[in-house]
Design brief:
120 residues, Arc Repressor Mutant, subunit A, three-stranded antiparallel beta sheet, 5 helices, 71% helix, rod-shaped
Length: 120
Amino acid sequence: MVNHPQRINAIFAALADPTRRRILSRLSREGEIRVTALASPFRISLPAISRHLRVLESARLIERRRRGRVHLIRARATGVQQAQRWLAELAAGWNFSFDALDELLNEEMQKKEQERRRKR
């Protein structure tokens, strides 16, 4: 499993909020954008947007750079990739468990079929 559970927790906590997911969607479509332009379609204050951005930044899902007084934000693919790896590892474990269960059920069905044939 991924060796950074706190980072994974931060990623999923950040993604739990619909406003932050919309921010990330917009950044993935538009690339780098000014904070004020990013905030414009949302019906929340600029300080509220800044708080959302800080959560996304601490989860390493976005990065911020300054050009003079302008703050530019862009999505970081590596943050999402960590979550994808964690989910892939989790799914692999599930698939292994389901394969083992499937094998066990097939064995049980074969035993029952053999017992039924013996009784005939």
